[in-house]
């Protein structure tokens, strides 16, 4: 049976929640005081959230809680007490990113629906199927999916599909952004994104050199690497470059024009973004989408028409430089990018604002009730109330015989109709007066109050649950693991991840490197077999690194190069998404796989869940500090799954379906390497991966844990990875030799990298 389509509204406050419900939302998503991806919203505390939940349920609206941050080990035990009151009160669902949180909720709240967050980067039907098997009732698709890709999920997986239809678009693929975290320590994965993508950047087009490493400098020192000064250029060109500096600031999404196509693709829940927006904004957007969903459901696609005034009204609510229909009908494009800064001020539509305030923001929504009141001399007053499928009956004081002025229907009706303090109004009220009766005003008020209290309780009781008490104890390590844990990997080996051909020879010649990863985009498929043989000759394993994002382009690429993949003799593959893990299984590609840091393992529950998928090893996350990494490492030991830690490399700060090269000069269909510069002149290296049609922005400063050997050794990792992305041959060799000497041989040696960062190894993220 086809479910009715749902309009899902954002709420960053109780006021916004009420405005959304009043404007016609079918469901609302909002965060509690913790674990939500909008830490700076006015998220309600404990009792406030429960009141919001009651309000939504009284008005026939669902409420979903965002539990969509990555959760540290020490926080995991707090989840139970945090969720329990909401669970018992009838919370409709939770939106989850962390696989550990996912597993925890399935274990302790088995009948609580889980919606797989867009931050899980669901880019195809295979990962959707995997998540359903794990227990998800709904997937929130990555914003970058096309209508055809969403339809494939619909056709292959019996699961609810939720997709964004309006609001801000992230430049990066959901959940693949470390830009805010690595620049300023405000992690988007923890709900604290500082939105550095909305700032201006220059991209003069200076290509990087991967042979000499001579252009690796960053910051002020690197200003010269962007090419000649602009003083000699003509004024018109300088102005154009100035106007086109907001290279990563996307226009807001608006899908009114293609709403029928989205619905026909199988989307069940139409999601509006905007938990940081005002109640007025929420009400205004919900109101418009309510209108057009109702229009489509009434008249179908043939009778569907969008009034330009309604689109203008949406722009009046928020304008970032116009709207885009996003990725539904195209892969990317310059027309999606604002390029100019959002106007700081423009004349507002005060008439519209006043209308929204009066009708949705300041006005309390009330539900219709059918009532029947019977007053008979010598008997208790009776009030029966019916709202939907719920009926209650209450008795009041005994009706007395009137001595002077008997009660009239008009007076009784007037008093019972005073429902202002409730969530109801009388749609119909039948009153029977039998005899000349008298009942004090206070008695009528008490009768009405008791009736509506009982009605409220009975309505809300439909959502309530009872949960068994839980005593949480951390599972102890088995004795054999405990006794051996200190010595399991006392002599860790090095691995080298390579993205450029010039890096291969140094990696092959380094004896301490026991495993080499070659990037599927950087190394030609017809060379894979040759490279594997070179690795084998040196006694090294060889893994193929799959792309950061696995979609149509990737499937076409690997379909074309299937024989090269199967015949090369790879030891295994390094998977970066759940979609890739599912694809390997679905396509029966008999190769072991390992999980990269982008498949987040922040806590013991996540480690255990990922381990059940069968990986060779798990890569430690980028954002945890050394103390937090110890907890993940302990979980790896307990579950018998090796862990790998990146000790050197330019972290991928952002992975985007957009292409800066295409935005600036059109698609070149060739692998490009640029330096984008921020307002201070600091350079951000960017790679265009054309085989898979996405960009990667790298941290300009490489992570280097050189000098932290003892702290790294305490983690007891099975292997330590050096990740090479933009380094030339000579620099690659220098770094390999230094890290091998220091970490493996225990020799003191000079730091091989002049400008570097410790990343989050010491500081972590809040």
Describe, in plain words, how this protein is organized in 3D:
The protein has 766 residues and is of the alpha/beta class. It has 3 domains: 6-179 and 252-361, Alpha-Beta Barrel (TIM Barrel), CATH 3.20.20.70; 367-461; 490-744, Alpha-Beta Barrel (TIM Barrel), CATH 3.20.20.70. It has 26 helices and 31 strands. Strands 19, 20, 21, 22, 23, 24, 25, 30 and 31 form a 9-stranded mixed sheet that branches. The two termini are 44 Å apart.
From the 3D coordinates, which CATH architecture of the largest domain would you assign? Alpha-Beta Barrel
Here the CATH topology of the largest domain equals TIM Barrel
Largest sheet: 9 strands, mixed
Q: CATH superfamily name of the largest domain? A: Aldolase class I
Shape: elongated
Helix share bin: 25-40%
Question: Which SSEs are present, and which pair or pack?
Answer:
Elements: E1 6-10, H1 14-23, E2 27-30, H2 46-58, E3 62-67, H3 73-76, H4 79-89, E4 93-96, H5 99-108, E5 114-116, H6 125-134, E6 138-140, H7 147-156, E7 160-167, H8 179-184, H9 235-243, E8 246-250, E9 252-254, H10 259-264, E10 269-272, H11 279-299, H12 308-317, E11 323-324, E12 337-339, H13 350-361, E13 367-376, E14 380-387, E15 390-398, E16 400-401, H14 409-416, E17 424-434, E18 437-438, H15 441-461, H16 479-484, E19 493-498, H17 504-509, E20 513-519, H18 528-537, E21 541-545, H19 552-560, H20 562-567, E22 572-575, H21 578-586, E23 593-595, H22 604-611, E24 618-619, H23 626-639, E25 643-649, E26 652-656, H24 660-665, E27 672-677, E28 683-689, E29 694-698, E30 703-704, H25 709-714, E31 719-724, H26 729-744
Parallel strand pairs: 1-2, 1-10, 2-3, 3-4, 4-5, 5-6, 6-7, 7-10, 9-11, 13-17, 19-20, 19-31, 20-21, 21-22, 22-23, 24-25, 25-31
Antiparallel strand pairs: 7-9, 8-12, 13-14, 14-15, 16-18, 25-30, 26-29, 27-28, 28-29
